[in-house]
Fold:
Amino acid sequence: MRRAIALAAAVALVAAWPASASDRHPTQGELERELVCPTCHTTLDESDAPIARQMKAFIKRRIAAGATKSQIEQELVDEFGPSVLGVPRKSGFDLLAWVLPLGGIAVGGVALAFGAWRWSRSRERRDPPQQAPVAPPLDPELERRVDEELARFDA
Amino acid sequence: MRALRVVAVGVVVALLGLLVWDVTQSNGSKVASSVDKGQVVAAPKLVLPYHDRDGKFDLASMRGKVVVVNFWASWCIGCKKEAKALDAAAKAWRDKGVVFVGVDVNDFRGAASRFLDRHDVGYTIVRDGQGSSLGKWGVTGLPETFFVNRKGRVVPPHVLAAATREQLEDGIRRALAS
Structure:
């Protein structure tokens, strides 16, 4: 059990490393791919709108000043609202956008499994399993003759 | 099984409620098109923070005055062209029951401040960084100017480009007369 926990922690650390590195040293390209122009609603890298050009210049200045990715994102959210983020954040209220679809799928799966189980149970109750047909008892005279024949065969 | 049905019905009702809410909220987008057809319509709600001070501007509190609502941004070329005419008109009508309000949309606060200093804008400016008011008023581009009469209703004309002094005078007079 301890080994499993240690392994899980190591995997989580390795997985988190690139994200944390990217947060500390964001690139112009990744931010332009992830942030949305508020007037044309496309990502900054695909927009040449005046406000998109201002946002690109802002990102460039802030990267040069050593700001982290989350700082730059937050500053742009403060100016233009959360819609500038191409994807919802994985914290606070925005986390619901990630959790709800997965939760919906899980609840749907459980409901489907429960429904299938209930359906199979009710069918069993309606149609009890058929028993194998029982052979009618042999006539005593016939049974005696069978016994005699078997005894003779054994002898 | 019964509980499951109740949950399913609840989800469907909630989704329907969301749909109805969205439809009722989007009715404001008809404002610009209705005014362009010559109709007089109720002004959508406009409650936004001031650009240069704490607190919020509420259009509803301006009842009894004519309000010129101008949507602009510092990066908009037409907004630079109309800045002088807007400020001159605001100064000329200040003591005659006419209020000018500039709604700065989709803009950096710093860039907006520099624009206001450069063009010496003296009337009320409010901030709408997200541009959430655009849909309610049916604004499709910048700049756009609306005239709200003393009863809180939007009256024609609706200026769809850089407003001239003549267009502003005409709009204000029509709002005062309605």
